[in-house]
Design brief:
mainly alpha; Zincin-like; three-stranded mixed sheet; 8 strands
């Protein structure tokens, strides 16, 4: 089935969800309702023009569309029972952004092993300094602004040498592909100066006298050459983005994204628009763990996911739940099942077999089936993943 990409739907859903997390006047809710109505109508017009259905949208777009379609902005605003979804703190790490920008440029231009060794040392030293300073000041990542928290996570991720080596290998593959693509058009100047960094959407291009900075989302370091070529063709020649969009929704990409977000420092945001993670934890802990499970940090993520609805980070003892589940038409028991699955990861840990870590062991699957409405919840998750 051919996917149809419609830009702006996820961005609109994120904006509406973010603004509804704060107190909103009747006039502002009416304004948001107008934006939602216009956005949904535009999606329907585009689908009709292409003879397509909702099922042909990429998974995150389907989830965002369903979120918008199920909003009832004429109903009274839900009362928050725990901290809001606002995620930005008030502490900026001075000088960090300019250092990071220079570092990205240096990485893009480096070619020799000694240069990469020096740059990795700079990343590790900067990450260590950030963690030390936060500890001395008694601050956690939740106090940082979005920008400082994002860069903190990026540095912490690539402080790990194996992750840094993946970045370098990706640079070596993508640089010639994009430089060749730039040479075949006249709008942007070669060479390609490649950055893997947090980027809204699939890419950003910035033209300069010394070349074109091509900004790609950090998890794309996992892309093989054929996906880089497909992305270059999509950006510069208008070819289909289908395979790229499918890869972005894939498990490897989403796993890297989740780790980056976790390493930056998650703010506990248990209150959603329709569900509260703290209340869900209390239900699940009482029914399945005898109130004996210590509560991890609980938070909604900030984007709509199509397949992966939960993630447990054992290093930071944090459970992140996809905001795709924060809908009025998602029953409590479905959210409880996703949380139960992640809490089992916390309780059971991993099993090492043949030098490889395995989380979904037979013991895990047996425990998972003890969920009271297991089959019903699994079926509901499958429908959600399909965008229903």
């Amino acid at each position: 089935m051919k996917l149809l990409r419609i830009q702006g739907v996820v961005r609109l859903a994120q904006r509406v969800r973010r603004e509804l997390a704060q107190p909103a006047s009747g006039a502002h809710r009416a304004h948001l309702q107008q934006l939602v109505t216009e956005g949904l109508a535009q999606v329907q017009r585009i689908l009709a023009a292409h003879g397509a259905t909702i099922e042909q949208l990429p998974a995150p777009t389907r989830q965002a569309y369903q979120f918008l379609a199920n909003l009832k902005l004429d109903a009274p605003a839900p009362q928050a029972t725990s901290p809001s979804m606002r995620s930005s703190g008030d502490v900026t790490l001075v000088g960090l952004k300019s250092f990071w920008e220079r570092l990205l440029d240096s990485l893009a231009r480096a070619t020799l092993p000694a240069e990469y060794d020096r740059l990795h040392h700079s990343i590790a030293a900067a990450s260590e300094r950030i963690e030390r300073d936060l500890q001395l000041q008694g601050l956690d990542g939740g106090r940082l602004t979005d920008t400082s928290r994002t860069i903190r996570g990026w540095l912490a991720y690539f402080r790990q040498r194996e992750c840094f080596d993946v970045y370098v290998a990706a640079l070596g593959r993508v640089r010639p592909i994009f430089t060749t693509a730039l040479e075949q058009q006249s709008r942007f100047r070669p060479p390609a100066i490649m950055h893997f960094r947090p980027v809204p959407g699939l890419y950003r291009l910035r033209g300069y006298a010394d070349g074109t900075r091509v900004l790609l989302p950090t998890p794309m370091i996992s892309f093989p050459d054929e996906l880089f070529r497909a992305l270059g063709d999509a950006i510069l020649a208008g070819h289909s983005r289908r395979h790229v969009v499918e890869a972005v929704a894939g498990e490897e990409y989403q796993a890297i994204q989740a780790e980056l977000e976790a390493l930056g420092g998650l703010v506990e945001r248990t209150a959603g628009l329709h569900h509260d993670l703290a209340a869900a934890f209390a239900r699940v802990n009482a029914q399945y763990f005898g109130d004996a499970l210590s509560r991890p940090r609980l938070t909604w993520n900030r984007t709509f996911t199509g397949r992966k609805f939960g993630h447990y980070d054992p290093v930071r003892d944090t459970v992140m739940i996809s905001c795709s589940l924060d809908r009025a038409d998602v029953p409590d028991f479905v959210l409880d099942f996703v949380l139960y699955h992640e809490f089992l990861h916390k309780q059971l840990g991993v099993d090492w077999r043949g030098g490889r870590a395995t989380a979904h062991t037979p013991e895990f699957r047996a425990a998972e089936r003890r969920f009271e409405r297991h089959a019903e919840a699994e079926a509901a998750i499958q429908r959600l993943a399909a965008g229903h």
